[in-house]
Each structure stands twice: as structure tokens, then as C-alpha cells.
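Minutes, project check-in
Item: structure for the 82-residue chain
Input as provided by the requester:
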Amino acid sequence: MSETHDNAFASTASADTVPWWWQLLDADGRVLPGEPREFPTRSDAESWVGEAYPDLAEDGVAAVTLFEGDREVYGPMSLAAE
């Protein structure tokens, strides 16, 4: 597994914020196991996925869904090149 994907499960959010996080999905739409990486802002989360998507796709992540706490914001968003 790539270093970027391994780090996908490290938390960067502080205890007093509602974390932003990506749900990682396989090609069949199943949630991939592991603790999601948390981000303090939507911008941080979106920047990270923009940088990490090639490694995530290589590691079997087919799509991602963005959450703010337990609220789904958008997705699933395909990581396939179009």
C-alpha cells in the first residue's frame, strides 16, 4: 500500500471541531475498512483527496464520499480518470 493511503487513517482534527472525513468505497460501492482520516476544514479534506487520489485509486479505492461529522456532504465521487 502507498504511504499516502496508509496516512489516510491518521486524524488531524482537534477535539473541539466537527471533523471532515472521506468515506472510501471499492468498485462495488462497499465501504473499505479502517478508521477515516479526519480534517479540521472542508478545504483541507478536499485538498488532501486531490493530492492522494492517484494513490487511493491504485490501492483499490474507486470512489469517495465527503462527510462533515455524520452529515453526508457529497458523493460518491468516482476516482476513475475520465
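Outcome recorded: The two ends are 24 Å apart (CA to CA).
No further action items on this chain.
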